[in-house]
Structures are given as C-alpha cells and as structure tokens.
Design goal:
This protein has 12 helices and 6 strands. The chain is an alpha/beta fold. The protein has a single domain, classed as HUPs (Rossmann fold, 3-Layer(aba) Sandwich), CATH 3.40.50. The protein has a 6-stranded mixed beta sheet with strand order 3-2-1-4-6-5. Helix 7 links the parallel strand 1 and strand 2. It is globular and about 50 Å long.
Length: about 325
C-alpha cells in the first residue's frame, strides 16, 4: 500500500473534500441522506478495496473478520425484536440489575484479556471482542464512547448489543459537522445517544476561569469539559468501548483489547485497537455508516473546534490536536 496521508486517501474520492464553508458542506449533505460521506469514500489506488460479502473474493484487510460477522446493508435488529442478543450469563446479570464489584470486574477484565489473546499475533477480531462482551455483560451496563468522527464503532457494537448507549461528550465547543454526525448516528443506528455535558456551560466557565480557558490552560479545560463529565457518566456501567487505535500515536501503540480502567472503575474495551485508518474507512464504506464530513477536509482526528486544526499531508494524524502545544491527549485515555 502506498504511503499516502489519511486525508488525501479520503479526499481524492470525496466531493466534500474541497475546503467548503461549513454551511455549504452541510447543505451539500442533506439531513435525510443516510450516508453523506461514505458514498464518496470509495476505494482509490492508495486504498485496498473491501469486496462485498457476496462477491466471493478473499478480503485482504484486517477488517475482514469484522465485515464477515456484520453483513453489509443488514438492518440491526431493535432491542425488543426478540433477536438473540445475550447469552444466559448476560441475561442472568441483566435480571439481577446489579453492577458487579470492582474486584469482580478486575477479574473479568483479566479473564477477557486472556480469552481474547490481547496483544498476541492471533488476538481476537473486533467482532469477536464485542461478542465476548455481549456474552459476559448485561447490555444495559455497556456503553460506547464516540467522538463522532465516524460511526464505525457504534455500528460494530450495536450489531451485537442493539440499543447500546452511545456517550457523546457535548463540550459546547464542537464543530457543526460533529453535531450533524451525532444526529445522523442517532437517526440511522440502533443505539441510544446519551449527551454527556459538563457541570458548567461555556459562559459559566468563562465567568469563573476567564474567557477561552482552552487557550491558556487546555489541560484544565479538557478536565472540566471531557474527563470529569465522562467519569461521572461511566459510574453506572460495567464496560465502556472506545475507538482508540494503536496506529494513532506513540502514546497509543500498546493499547490492549481489554483492560480494567482503574481511574473510572470499570472495564475498558478497545475492539478496533489493531485497525489502521484504512481499515476504519473500509468498514465505514462497506457498511455505509456516516463519517464526519471534516474527515474528507483534512481532519483525521477531530476534537473541539478551537483546539483542532487540519493536518498537512504526511503529518501525524493527531498533529492537528492542540497544534503548537506540548499537549497530545485530552486525558480520557491516559
């Protein structure tokens, strides 16, 4: 595969790739079009195509097992459809309504890491990871954290856990395209969006800490508007899924498939840890799930608008986050 930067791979095939103003980009993407960007994310010479399920062609990307387990264009059954979505273990846990103790969850995470062969050459596929969680955790005690850069992770998890809660950190600083993507995820997938908000509005925070805290103390701003709100929101769950990938940054290179999150007191699952950016786009394209229009405009990593810049060709995909500062992580995954 040729070494082409992520934004270029998306942009070459995307009609949204030109630097359109926000209003024009969204106007070009009708609110009732289920796949505003995925249709444009067709394979290019720099991107290995993922053949359809019925083509009979051998897939060549690591995402193949996830695609095989989640047929493209197949609606995800609703939470009340009667589809087999839990095992006897998960059903028994759901019936009790009890959240397990921290020691029990630590032991479960340890067992999961062993059974899923986390970090080994033959570690479990994303679909297998999600299936393991569905078999061992009540669906009402699992949540997906999603930045709304794309809907690949919510789609993957909802295939095994229909109606799963998707936590969206509503910081008050999001791009318009990000809130648009959040609304499309709510409209097109069998998930329940949970807007996680800070204790104070942006105006209240400005009054207490001064205007534009993000420019003077980005670590504190992230703590107040992301880290602390997510910590409070995770209190009622046993498991949270993240879309962290090992290829995103050196700080994420050793991301395990499953681990006990000591800070938040529950199991943290990273089912797509082994995916590349190409794998992510292949999954989104094959399943026609929404992708944030900003991805096609040079934003492979998307955070709050004041702290996110487009990335130049060849640069680190996360170099647009807190550009010019030593900060590289918001604090959610460290």
């Amino acid at each position: 595969m040729s070494a082409v930067d992520p934004a270029t791979r998306v942009a070459e095939a995307s009609p949204v790739a030109e630097a359109l103003p926000v209003a024009e980009a969204l106007e070009a993407t009708p609110a009732h079009t289920p796949v505003p960007v995925a249709e444009a994310l067709e394979a290019t010479p720099a991107h290995t195509p993922v053949p359809s399920r019925t083509s009979g062609t051998n897939r060549t990307t690591p995402v193949a097992e996830a695609l095989e387990a989640t047929p493209a264009h197949t609606p995800v059954p609703s939470r009340t459809s009667g589809t087999n979505r839990t095992t006897p273990v998960a059903e028994a846990l759901e019936a009790t309504g009890r959240r397990r103790s921290l020691d029990e969850l630590r032991a479960l995470a340890e067992r999961g890491a062993a059974e899923l062969r986390s970090g080994s050459a033959d570690e479990a596929s994303p679909a297998e990871v999600v299936a393991w969680v569905a078999a061992n955790v009540s669906p009402r005690l699992a949540a997906v954290a999603c930045s709304m850069a794309d809907a690949a992770l919510p789609h993957l998890v909802a295939a095994a856990i229909p109606g799963v809660d998707v936590l969206f950190l509503d910081t008050g600083y999001h791009f318009l395209e990000t809130t648009f993507t959040r609304d499309e995820v709510a409209r097109t997938l069998d998930v329940r969006i949970v807007d996680v908000k800070p204790e104070k509005t942006v105006r209240e925070q400005d009054a207490e800490h001064g205007k534009d805290l993000f420019a003077r103390d980005p670590a504190l701003c992230c703590e107040l508007r992301k880290v602390a709100p997510l910590h409070r929101a995770l209190g009622g769950y046993e498991v949270w899924f993240t879309g962290v990938r090992r290829d995103e940054a050196p700080t994420r290179a050793n991301t395990p498939l499953i681990v006990f999150d000591e800070r938040n007191g529950l199991i943290k699952v990273n089912p797509v840890a082994a995916w590349s950016f190409d794998d992510l786009i292949a999954y989104a394209t094959a399943h026609e799930v929404v992708v944030n229009p900003l991805v096609a405009n040079g934003y492979p990593s998307i955070g709050c608008a004041p702290c996110t810049k487009p990335v130049a060709p060849g640069e680190d995909p996360r170099s647009g986050r807190w550009a010019g500062l030593a900060k590289t992580e918001c604090g959610l995954h460290v």
